[in-house]
Amino acid sequence: MDDDKSGKITAIELRQALLNNNWSHFNTETCRLLIGMFDTNNDGSIDINEFAALWKYVQEWKSCFDRCVHLIILCPSAFNNSIFPLS
Question: For 11-80, which CATH superfamily applies?
Answer without folding.
Answer: EF-hand (1.10.238.10)
